[in-house]
Structure formats: structure tokens, C-alpha cells
Amino acid sequence: VIEVLEPALAETRRQIAWAKKTLERAKLDTRRVLAALAKTGRTRLRRDQWLWEPLDRVPRCVRATPLVRVRPGKLAHRLADGPGTPGAVGEFFHHLTGSELATMELYARCSYEHPSMPEEFHQDYSRVTWDEARHADLALRMAKKYGLPFGSMTIDVSAYETNYQYLTCKPGTRQELLWRLLIQGTFQESLIIEGFPLQAKKMRFAKCEDAARVPDVLAEEEVAHVAIALKWARYLCDGDKERVMEVRERAHLYQHQQVMEFRRRYVAEDPDRAIAETEKLQAYGKAARKRFPFSIKVYVNREARRSAGFTEPEITQIVNWGYFFP
Amino acid sequence: MNRREQIANQLLACAYVERASAHVLLGWLPLVPNTDQKLTLGDHAWVTIFRASRLERQVQSINRIRGGHRLAVPKAWRTHMKSIDASTDARHMLRKLYLEVRAGLAKLYRDLLRALDPLLDAALVEILGPALRDTDEQVRWARRVLRAPVRPAVKWLANPRSPYVQRTEWLWPPRSRVPHPLRPPELATHEEEGALVIPIVKPGLRTAAAMLHENIDAEITTMELFARCSYEHPDMPEAFHQNMARQASDESRHARACLDLAAAYGMPHGTFPTSTDVYDFHYQFKPCKPGSKRELLWRLLLRSTFQEALSLDGFLPLSARLVHDKAHDAARVLESLMADEVFHVESGLRWSRFLCDGDDDRVFRERDAAHRYYVQAAQRARKQYVKANPDRAIRETEELWKLHQQAHARYPFDLRVYLARTARTAIGFTERDLEQIVNWGYAND
Lengths: 326, 445
Hints:
The complex is a heterodimer of chains A (about 325) and B (about 450).
Chain A: H1 2-22, H2 31-38, H3 86-112, H4 119-145, H5 158-161, H6 174-188, H7 190-205, H8 209-236, H9 241-269, H10 271-291, H11 302-308, H12 312-320
Helix pairs in contact in A: 3-4, 4-8, 6-8, 6-9, 7-8, 8-11, 9-10
Chain B: H1 3-28, H2 35-63, E1 73-74, H3 75-85, H4 90-115, H5 122-146, E2 164-165, H6 205-231, H7 238-264, H8 277-283, H9 293-324, H10 328-355, H11 360-388, H12 390-410, H13 421-427, H14 431-440
Helix pairs in contact in B: 1-2, 1-3, 1-4, 1-6, 2-5, 2-7, 4-5, 6-7, 6-8, 6-9, 7-10, 9-10, 9-11, 11-12
């Protein structure tokens, strides 16, 4: 018992110290809660009744006022500094801060909104939430170090807001949860497995060794996150791997159509800016190919994906979507 | 090799040292004569094996992106650890293991931690921080016990040129059989097989002390037996070794609790002759080939799924007696022991089924055969004792009968033992298993 309680006490003390600091001069008032815990009423709840259904839906995540969100359909990248420069590294981490925060919030809600899922699911996603919080913290630190403190540019919340709900899924359903896990967990986060080692390589080329360590570690940790998402997606499909693939296919198509729809609207509203953005992006790509003395093509990492639990047809599915080379 | 791969390889070295240390400790537990040291080592065995598994998982987690780690280690490491296992006496083993290997491990932990970023490498810091604290504490303990001065750690892990061994070959087969565990030479022991080993004490507060005294031996011998079960079968799944090491650590804690309280009740260990019967009897069985899986199965079936399970049935009346005698401390100790016992029986059942390829019928049949052997062996030993010492044997029986009558007169409640059906069912015993125990006559249903 002591083995459990000692670390619990130390951790709770740390949390209270943090809360006191955050809430500025707040006093402790434990009387009410201790009195409530001391009550032994006749009505007892079973273990599966400990938690309660979600009190609300939260389709938009709250951000502090000075932070400005990216306009839907606009390309999020500023691309002010050339490839392989400290400024480009700063921009990478600025963007990453936004997406790590949003991913953390999305997974936290996945747990909160589905208290009836097995306890192991909640443990897995609390762990992922902790990891994403750390990743966001690291990205914040690096963005600041490389000259772009969080908020210097528009921020990206799409990982949360485009994955919170889908027109095709009834709000709050297991199907909605499945789509979140499939799109964000097994698809978008899985792209980090291949993409981030290349980012680290570029940072090393730019002599930003401390920064390069971050995408290296994040890529490693994302493999575990993808494995977790895959595990629970399969659970939600009663272990049917074929069904997981079918649903992922539908969810990916839906997401692609949504992105295209936003972009179409943006282009229609502001065609000159949209054209300028596209040209800038193309020029940036060309400059990057010239700048780096190695290939910047992204190839599928089959070993890592197998290790995360993907089947061969699942790997082929993502390769066929064209996000990287086979 | 990038920095992360280097970190993973250093973690692998730590994982290997921890796992191999646990193997040495589990094998040596019955061979350490000093009780206090024996119990501390039982605890260390669990801490080291638990840490090894966390480190191993972390190595894999870092390397998943590269398709996983083979977990192969230089053969020289195994040779070194095996040579420590082959020490001639406990003192030599302790000196080598703690003052060289584990002191070196502490240095490795310290160096690794120094090079880590608390935020970026938080998952590693979370493991290495407590690992360093525990290892430092263990080395300090060893220095105190061995009265040895601080020495610089030996850099024996730096040996990359040696051929490598796979994960399945990390450990080595047992170097010896240990049919009898060592005890401090000053401790009086029961020598005669078949004699009554339970101290006969009139019901009352002294019964609690006698129960604790008897329990000390049971806990220590069980710790030693399960430690050897792990050591003698390195090819069993890792989860088995973790269960066995955890049980060894639990039994060590239980023994300490009983030692302390027995002394506080005025009956320190050694007041009565002590016994190693539990170990001696369960170590080997005539129908089983020494070192075989059947021998392991019988140990688990008899000690865990039969005897330890019986303690669950006996808990209620025994606890009631202790409370009636106002031995509240002893009742608390007993309650705490029983909470762990549930896990021990569960583990015994789980691994018995594993050894029978999940065939419950075979588990049932083997338990029946092992129990028959146990009863016959006990009867045979008793018969021989009675034949050699008829007067003492008669006196023992009379005293036992008197004790039985005194107990019935003293306690105003039912002293019969009933099957702990709820606990047993939760553990995983089938209805047929429960009937088996009732039919053998150990508990009422």
C-alpha cells in the first residue's frame, strides 16, 4: 500500500503547489471534500457507474485572445525564411505547437466523452495526452528559441476542430470516436513516422542539433500512439481489420473532400492571394531541393509501421493515398 | 548510430544488468544464511526484475521506428554475471554483485541521467530517476553489510567486441540443485522428520506469538522455493519470472512483519526450533525428474494452489481468534498477508495451467496425484517417527487434542474452516477444483 501511496502523495503535493502558484494566493479548503468523502450513504455505485456522461460538446477549442487562428482553406505556412535556416526551424515548431496542443485536447475529449470504454483505453489516452502536452511544451520552447514564440504567426487548431465531429457521424457516438482515432490516430499522426526523421535531418544540416533531437524523439513516441489508436480502432470494429480499413478509406475520403471544400471556398473568395500562396509554396519546394544535398522525398517506413501493428494491406492503403513513396 | 540508438543501447545494458542481477539473487536466496540479508535480497530481486522489464520496454519503444531492437547483448556480459553466480559463498557473491556490478550500474544511470533533457526525455527520466535512487540505496546497504569501503565502479560493461547472445539466451541454466536452504548456524532447527513442527501453546495471546513464529519459517521457505522456481527455469516466459520475483518480495515483507511482531510479543525467531520443511518437501518429488517442468508444476500445484489457497479458507476463524485474544496487531498482519495471498494463488493457478498447455483436466489430475504423494509422504514420515519415538508421539497427539478442546472452550464462535468460495472463484478455481478441496476434507462448504 505504501508503495502506491508514497508516490501518489508526492505527485498530489506537486499538483497542489502548481495550482496554488497558478491561482495566485488561493487558499486550501479541504474540509468540504473530506466531509463528502467521509459520508457513507446507502446508495453505492458500481465500478462501471463511477463516471458520468459528458456534460457538453466542445466543437471549438478555446485559445487565449491574442492568438489568431489560421483562416480555413488558407495554407498555414508563412515560409518567410528559406529552407534549412533557423527561421524555418522556428516556423516548424510554431506550427507543431498548435497541432500538438490540439491533438492533446482531442484525445482528452475522446476519453472524457466515452466513459464506458474499457479502463485501459482511458489509461492509454491519458498517457498519450501527457506525451502530447510534453511535445507541445518542447515545441513552444524551440519555437521561441528559433525566434517565433507561439502567437507570432497564426495558429493551427485543425487537428482538434476538423476531427471533433463529422457530418457523417452522429455526435457522441462510438462511430465518431472511431473516425477520430482512424483519421488523427492511425493516419495523420502516422505520417510523422516518415516525415519527422527527414525534418530532423534538415535541422542537422542547418546545424540546429538541439532542435533536431525533438522530431527524432517525437517520431519514436508517435509509433506508440499510432499503435494505441490502431488497437482501439480495431476494438471498436470488433477486431475486424477489414472493417477498420474500409472505415479508414471512407473517413479519409471525407476529410480530403472537406479540405478541398475549404480550399475551394478560400480560392473563390481570395483568388489572388490563393494563387500567390501556391506559387510561394512551389518556389519554396524548389529552393528546398536545391538547398539540401540529400533527397527530401519521404519514403514509407514499413518496419516501423509493422511494429505499430499495421497489416501489409493497411500500409499499402496509405501508400496508395500518395503521402509518401513506397 | 544516432544518439537515440546510443541511448537505447545504454538502456539495454542497464536492462541486462538488472535482469541478470535478479537471476543471480533468485538463485542465491536459499544459499544466504543470514536471515536479514536473505530477506533484503528477496526484495531486491523484485525491484531489479521489475526495473529490467521497464527498461527493456523502453529500449523497444525507442527502436520501434527502426523496426524494433533484437535485444542481443555481448556474451561477455553473461559470462561475467554467470561467474558471479558461481561464487563460492554468499559474501563473495554480494561483494561482486553489489560493489562491482551494481555500483557500476549506478554510475551508468547517473551518467545517462546527466545527459538527458528533463522534458524531451521525460519518459526516460521517469524510469532512470527511481532506478538510480534504488541502486544507490542497494549499494549503500551492501557496503554496510560487507563493511566495505567505497570503491570506484568497474567498467566491465564496455566490451562490444564479444559475440552477441539473443534475448532468449540472456540467462543461464541453474548451476546447482539446492534441496535444503541455509540457516544461521545459531538457529535451532527441527531435525526429526515426522515430528510435530507447530509449537504447542495454550490458546490466548501467546498463540498469536506462536502463530507468527511459525509463519516466519513458512514465509521464508516459500520465498526461497519460488525464487528457485524462477532461477531453475530461465526458459519460462518473462511474466512468470516477474510473478515469482514479486511473490518472493511479498514473502520477504511478510516474514519481516512476522519477525518484528513475534519479537514484540516476546517470542523472537528461534524461541522454538525452526523448520525448513516447506522448502525441503516441495523442492523435489520422487515421481518428478529433478529440474523438470513437472517438478515445477508440482511445486506450484502443492504450495500455491493447494496450501496457500487453504490459508484463504482458514483466514476468517484465525482472524476471529486473534481479535478475541486482543492480538489486534497480529490480526492486522494476517489481514495484510491474506490480501497478497490471493495474488499468489492466482499466479500459481495461472502458471500451472500454462505448464499443462491450458488443459484444466490435466491440472486437476496432476493436483490430485501431487496431493496423494504429499499425504502419503506425510503419513510415511509420521509412521516412522511414531515407530522410533512412540512416547513422544503419543504425548504430541495428546497435547494436540488438549489444545483442540481448550480452543473450543475458549472461543465463543464456530472454529470450523469453510471454503472461501468467493475468493477462490474470483481467483479462477473451477467448481470441480472447489469440490476437490472439500472432498479432501480441508474445508467445509
